[in-house]
Automatic annotation (TrEMBL):
Organism: Phrynocephalus forsythii
This protein's UniProt keywords: Membrane, Transmembrane, Transmembrane helix, Transport
CC annotations in GO: Golgi apparatus; plasma membrane
Membrane spanning stretches: 52-71, 105-125, 132-152, 164-188, 200-223, 229-250, 315-334
GO MF, one example: nucleoside transmembrane transporter activity
Record InterPro entries: Eqnu_transpt, MFS_trans_sf
Pfam families: Nucleoside_tran
Membrane topology: Multi-pass membrane protein
Family to which this protein belongs: Belongs to the SLC29A/ENT transporter (TC 2.A.57) family.
Protein name: Equilibrative nucleoside transporter 3
Source organism, top-level taxon: Eukaryota
Subcellular location: Membrane
PANTHER family attached to this UniProt entry: EQUILIBRATIVE NUCLEOSIDE TRANSPORTER (PTHR10332), EQUILIBRATIVE NUCLEOSIDE TRANSPORTER 3 (PTHR10332:SF17)
Amino acid sequence: MAVDLEEEDCHHSANSLCETMNTTVQEETPLFVEPVENRHVAWRPKDHLNGAYMIFFLLGTSSLLPLNFIMTAKHYWMYKLQNCSEQISPAQQGDTDVRDFFESYISVASTVPSVLCLIGNFLLVNKISVNVRTLSSLVLMLAVFIVITVLVKVDTSAWTQWFFIISIICVVVLSGAATVFSSSVFGLSGCFPVRNSQALISGQAMGGTVSAVASVVDLAAASEVTDSALAYFLTADIFILLCIGMYLVLPKLEYSRYYIRKQQGIITQVPRTLAIDHLENEATATAITTSLFPPNRNHPGQIPPLWSLLKTTSMLGFCVFYVYFISIIIFLQSPPA
């Protein structure tokens, strides 16, 4: 009898131990797993009406638009370099080198300053803020285009060579400013989800289309070369003004403020949570893309690690270089007469 009681006590103790272990396991492993769509994650504002996306698209368009406007206005340049005349007699031809190779001069005047300004922007990226670089380059581009627009209605037949020199100087300044603007905006887009960088690239692709359409419309609407060119360059002026306004609006958006402050390290704790179906429906909703050159300047005054950057992007850089190399070789090449 005593033995039976002891066996009963042992079984009871063992069952109690098993129940205790099972209770612990049940507490650690929930029986019901909440669906993913009902879980709560860190709150991030939504890009309402795709406002930031459209602004980055516009900034991308403006980065290549000025040079596209310069290159597309071939009829206007020939008119100015022919002493402001549609046709010129053989006796008044003079030096035809400027007219025949004007596009080559523009290519050199735009490529060399672009490379130099790209190197300078890389060296000064941690010394000058992105706002200063972006706004100063936009204002400089606007000032140059205003000069070009004013020269449209000025009779330059008596000083054609000086007009050519002034035009080349304008192209040099415009190319350098556009390069600084483009690289600065791409650095800024690194603070945002990747879709905004895609908007910049799409906007750059649209730049050539916008300039071509504007040229066709202006040529069809105006019979005079100067009237057509005036409307054409005024379109560029308005576009750059719109770009400046949109860039000033960008940091006022809640969506932009969040990612900029997140990149600067100002946001350290999430103020509240929302269900995931209220968040932005994109693959990057749970991750923050970081920039190699953040606005908070973690290493102020220092030059970014060029060698490591080149090593990381070597294959992609070679592919881009090869594509542009072939494109520039065949660009504006015409068969011999």
